[in-house]
Structures are given as C-alpha cells and as structure tokens.
Amino acid sequence: MAPSLEEPEPVADVIENPLKSKPELVAPEPEHCPGPESEQAGKADNCAGCPNQAICASAPKGPDPDIPLISARLSGIKHKILVLSGKGGVGKSTFTTMLGHAFAMREENNVGIMDTDICGPSIPKMMGVEAETIHVSGTGWSPVWVTDNLGVMSIQFMLPNRDDAVIWRGPKKNGLIKQFLKDVEWGDLDFLLVDTPPGTSDEHLSVNSFLKESGIDGAVMVTTPQEVALLDVRKEIDFCRKAGIKVLGLVENMSGFVCPKCTHNSQIFKATTGGGAALAKEMGIPFLGEVPLDPRIGRSCDYGESFFEAFPDSPACTALKGVVRGLAEQIGIDAKLVLPDD
Amino acid sequence: MSLSKVKHVILVLSGKGGVGKSSVTTQLALSLSLAGHSVGVLDVDLTGPSMPRMFNIEEAKVTQAPGGWLPVTVHEANAETGVGELRCMSLGFLLKGRGDAVVWRGPKKTAMVRQFLTDVLWGDLDYLLIDTPPGTSDEHISLAETLLKDARPGQVAGAVVVTTPQAVATADVRKELNFCSKTGIPIVGVIENMSGFVCPNCAECTNIFSKGGGEVMAQEFSARFLGAVPIDPQFVMLVESGAKPVYPAGTMVNGKDMSGANASTEQAAQTTATTSRDSALLADKYRGCSLEPIFNQITRDIVTAIG
User: Fold this and answer.
1) How open is the CA angle B163-B168-B170, to the nearest 5 degrees?
2) What ipTM was estimated for this complex?
3) For labeling, which of B149, B165, B212, B275 is most exposed (least CB within 10 Å)?
4) CB contact under 8 A, A120 and B175
C-alpha cells in the first residue's frame, strides 16, 4: 500500500475546533464497509475480521449530536435553497451568484451564499471577494459581506494561497460543510443559497442530512440543453427523489447564442432530445425558463461584478428575472417581494 | 494488474466541471485510433459518466470474463484503413437504468476506482486514456495512489489538463495543476477548450468564454500548451445525434477547406442530420469535423512528447 496522498491537515490553522467525525481507524475502510459512522458500524457481517471492528463498535451511535446545534444556528433563516446539477460547468455558481444579486436588489432582503464546492470553489471570484479571509470570533465565523445584505462563505477564504489544491477525501469535506452550517454566524437571513459541486456524493449527502431537520425549501436544477448534460441532471433529480428533497424547478442555461454582429441565433449546445423543457415535463417538475449565452455574463463573473446591475436590459437578464420570479412562486412568496418591478 | 500490457497511461484532468474533459478524451481517443494506435478509454467519473454517450454505446453492457471485466468495443482495428481498435470502460455500462443516480460516499468510489484499474482486461494497448470527474478528491487521490503503487516507471505518461479560457475556470484548474505537482503526476500539456465560437452565418468569431486564459496559465506553470480548440456545434451534433459534420462553403480550418471535404455528401448529410444516426463509424465521421485537424496536431505533439 502506497502512502496516502491525502494531506494530514492543510488548513489546520484555520479549522481550529475538532469535529465530531468518524472514529480513528487503524486500517483503511474495506470495500463493503457499512461506514464507520453508521448504525451498523462494527456489527455488520462485513465487519467480522476487520481490524477496525472494536473501534467502530464502541464509537458513539445515533443521530449526529451536532444537528440540533445546526438547527439552532440556522433558526433565523427563512428560506434555504440548494442549487444542484449532476453536470459540471453548466452554470450552477453563475446562477447562484445571479440569484443572490437578484434577491439582494431589494434592500429589505438579507441573503447568504454558502459554497459547498470544496475542491473547486468559484463563488468568491464571481462575487469579487476572492482575496478576503474570514474572521473567527468567540461566537463563530463571520461570513464575508459583499454588500450590506449579501454574505458569502467558502473554503477559498481559508486557503493560504489562491491556487492551493484542496486534496481531501469525503469525510473531511463533510466536516468542513458541517462547520459552515454550525459555526457561521449568518444571523437573520431571508434566503440562504447553497451552491454545490457536480455529482451525487459526499457533499450532497451531507448538506441534506445536516439541513433536513431545520428544513430545506427545495432545490433548483441547472442544466444545459444537450443530452450529454441532461443525462447527468436526470441522475441528480433521481437523487433528490431518493433523498426527499423537493425540486423547485429546472433552469436551462446556455440556450442559444446570438451573434453580436449579425444577430443570428446559433444553438451551440443543441437540444437534440428536447432540452430542459422536455426533461422537466418528463420528470414532472416545473420548468423555470431558458437563459441564453451572453459573453458578458462570463466577463462579469471574471471581474466579480453583478451582471444584473451592469446589463439590466440584456435578453439574458430579462430571462433571469423570469426565472427568479418563477422560483419565488415555487417557494410560496410574492414575486414583488423578491425582485422589484422594472 | 490489468494494466501490465498497456504502454502509456494518460489522465485527462480539470479542476473545473463542464470544460470538455470527456469531449477532449473522446477526440484524443478518435485521433489516436485514426493514427493507427490501439486505444482504451477508462471513465472514472462515477456519478456522471459521459463516455458511453460520447461513443454512442449507451446500450452496451460489460461482459464478465474469467479474471475480470471485458471493456466495450467502440470499433475494431482495421488493417486496411490503418485504424487502431478503440475500447471503453465506464460505470455507465454497469447501471440498470440510464437515469439512475449513483449515490456513493468516498470509500465506495475509492473501491470502484481501484477495481477499474485492476480488474479490467484491456490486453495489449498503446494508450489508455483515463477520463476523470472535476475536483481533487476521492477519485483523484485513489487514481494517483493506485497508479503510483502499481504502474511501471514511465508507464504513466502524465496528465492532459483541460480548461476553458475564462478566469473562473482557470482558477479551479490551477488547483488541479498544483494537485499534479503534489502527487508527482507529470503534466503532458494544457488544452484550452471552448476558445471562441465562429458564427455559422457570418463567420464572426466571438470569444464567449473569453480567450487566451489557458495559454497564460500554461506559461505560468511552465507546462506545454497543446492548443486552443474552438466551439464547434457540428461536433456537438456528431456526438448528440451521430450527424456527419456539415460546414458552409468557405469554412477554413488550419488552411484546410472543411466545406470542400463534404461538398459532395452535403445533401445526404443534411437528411441524416434530421433523421437518425447513420451506421458509419464515429471515427470515419469525425474525419470530416473541423476539430479533427486540430486534434490531429495535438495528438502528434502528445505522442512526440511522451515518446
């Protein structure tokens, strides 16, 4: 067995408080391990003969004692919305930032964005707060405030260097997500938006299990029109069903591109199987709308500006406003209270 | 280990999702195979496998043979045309329904990656391309650990790192380059994908995701820059519906007139585009794609670089 490449504690100086996590094992988990944190730990058939058996069997069992703490910490948050997609690079983070900016346009709304993409955090750059660090006080961690009513939390704020790789396996990622929920002082928020990495694995399971008790409004799915992307998004919807997360709706991003010179509309990622609209119909979930490709969106993200404020008259912005209003409807609030009229 | 008869292992990596890792893997595989090499593609994106769709073999299932799994054949070697064989292995072949979610935590993903590396009967291969999910987590750590432990010295040629030009993407890909240097995986080179889009109507080139970010990043990390690949909706269509690429008259790529190559078949191709996949080999149809000359060059550079 080669030495593990997982780094011992790369951001140890920032993550001071020890977490309740899996017990200290003396050997790697075997293939059919029920999970050292699970109810069956140390007792399942596969545990017989495992060097960890005694350790797992004596570890504390039952629901995570931190969940009530998380629920207490998040009690001042009215709506919690997940942004999901099975596929990478479809615009989850872009959509999350735009949703955040849209919600925060009304001064009375307080909005928080939590970036659970541990290995590839994009939110800080898109929000223009990449160089910030978090402040730790006796009562918890303060989020980084982009504006008076828009706060952000991401692992990027904890890295000593901007380009540092976070080489972590699942349990460690789960530990950090738990800290984001348990220790961050969000205060009273109207909306907490949770941006996620692509896939259906540790981060998604953790967010769901930690937030279940305090209540999740639901998840917004982001996709692009082509079947290669829809295929993975279908899996994510299946995951939501299995995990009992309500799907608030599906957004199709990168739908068509209008040439700035001749205004010809090209379907770059052509919807050969009907695109997002057909998938939403097939899965019985609301379709929130199509957002076209606009080079200015990418540029706004690179410079950390709000696309909403910079180009309010662009077709992409109009489409996005429609999506935000549709989403507001799905979580049962008046669209006028979310996005001021034009 | 099942990789004993594999000459070179190349990883396709990117810290960012959706930049075209699987598209690049597909095209490298087609290009290497068109050059006469025998190629295997291993898809270790467990929660979002794309390779079966890319090669249009979604219906295929993996066969269990004594000693391991047999990969799915995309096409056989053809001595006449000088095309090498192309085979593929993905978790997609092991799922019951194509929409089924694979909800696995780390240890199970680790076990699967190890199994893919040890139990697939590749046989003799010139190149094994490994397509990966985004990030620097379980799958990547397991890949690196297993390969460092089991591979022959020099067998792992290194990583082809894919990015798109915009800063938001290169920020994540920089992390992946640091991952490579920490784990001792050599970097074969950087490919900038989605670098510009040429309007099919007026030939105006728009840099939808800006331009040049990949090249600058490669310079900063002293890595070889393998090339910039534009967005080609015809390639998307080739993968999506098996339609043969068609270009308007006057489309020039690297000095080669792409429209001329297809002029005689244009009519026929247009009808197939609206119906369904025709039976010609994916590799044959790819010859008519505007990206083929670009990948041909990239492939030659890679082959020269790794010897």
Assistant:
1) 35
2) 0.90
3) B275
4) yes
